[in-house]
Design a protein that fits this description.
Layout (H helix, E strand, L loop, with lengths): L34 H8 L2 E3 L3 E4 L2 E4 L7 E2 L11 E3 L2 E5 L2 E2 L1 E6 L13 E6 L13 H4 L12 E2 L2 H10 L4 E4 L8 H13 L3 E6 L5 H7 L5 E5 L5 H7 L3 H13 L3 E8 L7 H14 L5 E5 L14 H13 L5 E4 L11 E2 L6 E6 L2 E5 L29
Parallel strand pairs: 9-11, 11-12, 12-13, 13-14, 14-15, 15-16
Antiparallel strand pairs: 1-6, 2-3, 3-4, 5-6, 7-10, 8-9, 17-18, 18-19
Bound molecules: iron/sulfur cluster.
Length: 390
C-alpha cells in the first residue's frame, strides 16, 4: 500500500488489542487478534454481492484468494464472513478520510494538481512486512495496531469531496477490493455528483470484481511489488494474479498506473526491474510506471533507504524496455527530470512536478504536446465516454 495514510485523519473509538495468531490457510478460519475490533466491524456489515454458494459454503470472489468460507468462518482478509449462509461485507464506516493531491496516490496522468478525497476501511488480503498503512491494513492481525473507525454514509463521503472541490474520489489506505461493495455504494453517489473515482490497490483482483467496479471507475493504480512469485507469496499474494489484474484493468478501458516500491535487496536487481518493465510494456507502453523510494517501516527495518541513483537506474531500465512514461518518486527534488511528464515524441516538459506539487502544465486543451503535437494519454480532463488507452 501507499504511504499516504500516514497523514490521513483517523477518528472514532480505539478498540482494545488481544493475543496474536498466525495467518491460516485459505478458507479455514482465520482468527483475529483483536476480537473487540472484529465485533465492532461485524456490526458495520451488509450482505455482499461478490460471492456465490458452493457446496454448502460461500465462495467469495472479491479478490484473487477466492476463499471458500464455511458458516461462521471468515475469509483470509478477516473482514468478510459467512453468517448463516450469507456473505457479510464491510459497510458504512471509514477509518481514514483525507484530502490529498492526486499525485500522492500516485496518479500522474489523472487530473494533475487536483485534490483527491481518499477514504479507507480496515483490513487487507496481504500481509506485507513493509506496509506503510499497517495500522489500518493489519488491524485484525497485529495486536499493536490501534485503528479507529467513524460511521458515515456514502452521501457524507461525497459531500466531503464536494466541499474539498475534489476532482477524484479514491478508495485506498486498506485494500479496497475486500471492501468493494462499500466503495461502489460511495462511487454511485459520486457519479450522481459528477465526481470521478479511482482504486489504489494491491492488484489481487478477479474478473468478477473488476466487472463489478468497472462502471464506477476511471482509473486503477496497482502495486507491482516484485516479479518473483516466491517473494509475492511471502507477502500474501501471487505474481500471476497481480499481472493479470494489470492486463484485465487495461483491457476494460481503465486508466492504469503501476507502482513498484524499490526495496534494496528485495526487488532491485537489474534483471527483476527489466522483467517488470518489459511486462508492463507488453500490456501497453503508455502505462506509467512509478519507481518509488523505500524507507524502513513496520516489520521491514533492515534494508537501507533507497538512494536517488537507484531510482534513476530503475527509471532508465523502464525507458529501455519501451515504456513512454516512467517516474521516480518519494525523493522530491532528488531525481532530476524523473518527476516530470515529458513528451515521448520530442522530450518537451509537459507537467513539471516537485514531490506532490504541480509547478507547471503545458498540455494543450486537446491533451497534446504544444511543441510537436504528440497525443499524451491519460485522464487529463473530465471523463470522456468511450476513450480507450492503447
Ligand atoms: S476478499 Fe479475498 S480474502 Fe477476503 S474473503 Fe473474499 S476472497 Fe477471501
Amino acid at each position: 500500500m501507499t504511504r499516504d495514510m500516514s497523514e490521513a485523519a483517523r477518528f472514532g473509538p480505539a478498540a482494545a488489542a488481544d493475543a496474536f495468531c498466525g495467518e491460516p490457510p485459505v478458507g479455514l478460519a482465520p482468527r483475529v487478534v483483536n476480537p473487540s475490533l472484529a465485533d465492532l466491524l461485524d456490526r458495520h456489515t451488509v450482505p455482499g454481492t461478490l460471492w456465490h454458494v458452493e457446496g454448502g459454503r460461500i465462495r467469495c470472489v472479491a479478490c484473487g484468494h477466492r476463499c471458500l468460507i464455511a458458516p461462521g468462518r471468515r475469509g483470509i482478509c478477516k473482514v468478510r464472513f459467512n453468517r448463516n449462509g450469507e456473505l457479510r461485507v464491510p459497510f458504512g464506516y471509514v477509518s481514514g478520510l483525507a484530502a490529498d493531491p492526486v499525485e500522492k496516490k500516485p496518479f500522474f496522468h489523472v487530473y494533475p494538481g487536483r485534490t483527491a478525497l481518499t477514504f479507507g476501511m480496515l483490513g487487507c488480503d496481504f500481509h506485507c512486512s513493509y506496509c506503510q498503512n499497517w495500522v489500518t491494513s493489519q488491524a485484525l492481525r497485529d495486536e499493536t495496531a490501534t485503528a479507529r473507525i467513524q460511521r458515515v454514509t456514502p452521501q457524507q463521503v461525497v459531500e466531503g469531496a464536494r466541499r474539498q472541490n475534489a476532482g477524484l474520489l479514491v478508495s485506498s489506505y486498506n485494500e479496497p477490493l475486500i471492501t468493494a461493495e462499500w466503495a461502489v455504494a460511495v462511487f454511485r453517489e459520486a457519479k450522481l455528483a459528477g465526481i470521478d473515482c479511482a482504486f489504489v490497490s494491491n492488484g489481487n483482483a478477479t474478473p468478477e470484481a473488476l466487472d463489478f467496479l468497472r462502471p464506477w471507475l476511471v482509473a486503477y493504480k496497482v502495486d507491482l511489488k516484485t516479479f518473483d512469485d516466491r517473494r509475492y507469496r511471502s507477502l500474501g499474494g501471487t505474481l500471476g494474479h497481480v499481472t493479470e489484474t494489470i492486463r484485465m484493468a487495461h483491457n476494460r478501458g481503465l486508466w492504469v498506473e503501476v507502482v513498484t516500491l524499490l526495496v534494496p535487496g528485495f526487488n532491485d536487481t537489474g534483471q527483476e526491474l527489466r522483467d517488470i518493465a518489459q511486462f508492463i510494456a507488453s500490456v501497453s507502453r503508455n502505462i506509467p510506471w512509478h519507481v518509488t523510494a523505500f524507507h524502513p517501516d513496520y516489520r521491514m527495518t533492515t534494508p537501507p533507504e533507497t538512494q536517488a541513483h537507484d531510482l534513476i537506474r530503475a527509471a532508465e531500465i523502464g525507458v529501455e524496455a519501451g515504456l513512454r512514461f516512467v517516474y521516480a518518486g518519494n525523493l522530491p527534488g532528488g531525481v532530476g527530470p524523473w518527476e516530470d511528464t515529458r513528451c515521448p515524441g520530442c522530450g518537451e516538459t509537459l507537467v513539471e512536478r516537485r514531490g506532490f506539487r504541480v509547478l507547471k502544465r503545458t498540455l494543450t486543451p486537446e491533451d497534446s504536446c504544444p511543441r510537436c503535437g504528440c497525443s499524451i494519454p491519460g485522464v487529463w480532463q473530465k471523463t470522456r465516454v468511450g476513450v480507450t488507452f492503447t
